[in-house]
Amino acid sequence: MWAATARTRDAIDALPFVRGLGDGSLDRDRFAYYMTQDALYLRGFARALASAAAKAPNGEEIAFFAKAAHDAIVVEGALHEDQVGRVADEAEPSPTCNAYTSYVLSVAHTQGYPELVAAVLPCFWVYADVGERLMAKAGELADHAYGEWIATYADEEFAQATEQAKAIADRQAAAADPGTVARMREAFHRATTYEWMFWDAAWRREAWAH
Ligand SMILES: Cc1ncc(CO)c(N)n1
């Protein structure tokens, strides 16, 4: 699945937002816009993870997704609050933020556990991958403008959660019929594309036309 999305992954590395995050040159306004939108995204994403917990077939996977939902709000929320302060409940999601969260929530509500697992996997995988790459290039994080962000996603615990999410997706794909596997690929690809769009939207500080 990852191989089919390699082009999108390369395109994510090439984004001016991601490059600027990596070398610290990104301006604070764009970063603040991104963090606010990301806090809104994480609320929707956490609901989708809680849905995955509700659909999971065994205790281990229920616990995994329930903890992931918790961490998306509590652990990542602490990073956001630290960086941009508390994001108001009534802050407005951008078109892309709204599209991405609506998409994962629609998968949660209209499709099965395998498709939902595939739809949330890029959120783990893309961030762990970007975090790790930026960490390798960044050097001393204490002196880095976005060191805290990089440290959060290059973290060993986040890497472990990503491995667990991958293993769950692999097990589901191995047991699924061809139609389900095709929908899993579609969900994985679409969510990876939304990851690209999310950073691109932050670079453009995307707004609603009206
Ligand atoms: C848009 C987006 N995708 C994934 C993550 C990682 O949880 C995040 N914080 N934001």
TrEMBL record:
Q: Which Pfam families match?
A: TENA_THI-4
Originating organism: Nocardiopsis coralli
Q: What is this protein called?
A: Aminopyrimidine aminohydrolase
Swiss-Prot/TrEMBL keywords: Hydrolase, Thiamine biosynthesis
Query: What's the catalysed reaction?
Result: 4-amino-5-aminomethyl-2-methylpyrimidine + H2O = 4-amino-5-hydroxymethyl-2-methylpyrimidine + NH4(+); thiamine + H2O = 5-(2-hydroxyethyl)-4-methylthiazole + 4-amino-5-hydroxymethyl-2-methylpyrimidine + H(+)
What does UniProt give as the signal peptide span? Answer: none
Give the EC number(s) under which this enzyme is classified: 3.5.99.2
**Annotated metabolic or biological route of this protein:** Cofactor biosynthesis; thiamine diphosphate biosynthesis
Which NCBIfam families does this chain map to? salvage_TenA (TIGR04306)
